[in-house]
């Protein structure tokens, strides 16, 4: 089974520029998550999608961050304009999204992440 | 979701059992305990989860105290590849909700 794919793996931009990250979840996974991981910290949830609808975006800085999952499969996360403090690894994860009966639905599968450096 | 407390770092000799503690004294009745690990430069990886009973799979065992206020993840025969940051997470949403990660425990397996 193919895992969660993310691209690019690395990106260096200057502050005030824009950047976009792409994620392809595991086939059949209804729920998709974007996390931000700053160096030395655990991942922080930015946004969660169920199919193509947003379930939770309470921690997404909406003045500069946006995300979409138009067809309920792939997703993009955009930052515009970037700030120095946005330097982090951006992780995408997916899960079946059906809590309760199926043990495997409890697992979130993470991609390798995109390392963003803002200079 | 309840807050968890873990030691910042731990060492373990290769081939020995690694026991990683986690305190979650404010856990509520419908919250599960999850463990994930993150090897350097990789995304987190699911290890195991439990509600009340002890659980075991091919990777590890999870021991949850009777009052559910703490738990221990056991890696029975640690190898160098088990060196990673281990996160204990409490969540009520099963796999559907976003996870709240702390700083985790940096486990270093010594040769």
Describe what this molecule looks like in 3D.
The complex is a heterodimer of chains A (119) and B (111). Chain A has 119 residues and is mostly beta strands. In chain A, 0% of the residues lie in helices and 46% in strands. Chain A has no helices and eleven strands. In chain A, the strands form two sheets. In chain A, strands 2, 4, 5, 6, 9, 10 and 11 form a seven-stranded mixed sheet that branches. A four-stranded antiparallel sheet of chain A has the order 1-3-8-7, with no helix packed on it. Chain A is globular. Chain A starts with a strand and ends with a strand. By secondary structure, chain B is mainly β. Chain B has a five-stranded mixed sheet, with no helix packed on it. A four-stranded antiparallel sheet of chain B has the order 2-7-6-5, with no helix packed on it. In chain B, a hairpin with a 5-residue loop joins strand 6 and strand 7. Chain B is globular and about 40 Å long. Chain A binds chain B through residues 4, 31, 33, 35, 40-45, 48, 50, 56, 91, 93, 95-100, 105-113, and chain B through 32, 34, 36, 41-46, 49, 85, 87, 93-104.
What is the element layout, followed by pairings?
The complex is a heterodimer of chains A (119) and B (111).
Chain A (H helix, E strand, L loop, with lengths): L4 E3 L2 E4 L5 E6 L6 E7 L6 E7 L2 E4 L8 E4 L6 E5 L8 E8 L13 E2 L3 E5 L1
Parallel strand pairs in A: 2-11
Antiparallel strand pairs in A: 1-3, 3-8, 4-5, 4-9, 5-6, 7-8, 9-10, 9-11
Chain B lengths: L8 E5 L4 E6 L8 E7 L6 E6 L4 E2 L4 E4 L5 E6 L8 E8 L13 E6 L1
Parallel strand pairs in B: 1-9
Antiparallel strand pairs in B: 2-7, 3-4, 3-8, 5-6, 6-7, 8-9
């Amino acid at each position: 089974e193919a895992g969660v794919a993310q691209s690019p793996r690395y990106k260096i931009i200057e502050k005030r520029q824009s950047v976009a990250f792409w994620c392809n979840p595991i086939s059949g996974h209804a729920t998709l998550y974007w996390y931000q991981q700053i160096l030395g910290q655990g991942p922080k949830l930015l946004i969660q999608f169920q199919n193509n609808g947003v379930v939770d975006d309470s921690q997404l800085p909406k003045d500069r961050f946006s995300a979409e999952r138009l067809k309920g499969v792939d997703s993009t996360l955009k930052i515009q304009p970037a700030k120095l403090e946005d330097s982090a690894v951006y992780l995408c994860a997916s899960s079946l999204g059906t809590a309760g009966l199926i043990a495997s639905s409890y697992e979130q599968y993470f991609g390798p992440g995109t390392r963003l450096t803002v200079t | 979701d309840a807050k968890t407390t873990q030691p910042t770092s731990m060492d373990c000799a290769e081939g020995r059992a690694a026991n990683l503690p986690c305190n979650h004294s404010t856990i509520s009745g419908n919250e599960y305990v999850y463990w994930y690990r993150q090897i350097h430069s990789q995304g987190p990886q699911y290890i195991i989860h439990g509600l009340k009973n002890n659980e075991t799979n091919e990777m590890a065992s999870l021991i949850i105290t009777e009052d559910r206020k703490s738990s221990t993840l056991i890696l029975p025969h640690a190898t160098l590849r088990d060196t990673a940051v281990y996160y204990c997470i409490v969540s009520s949403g099963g796999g559907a909700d976003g996870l709240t990660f702390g700083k985790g425990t940096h486990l270093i397996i010594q040769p």
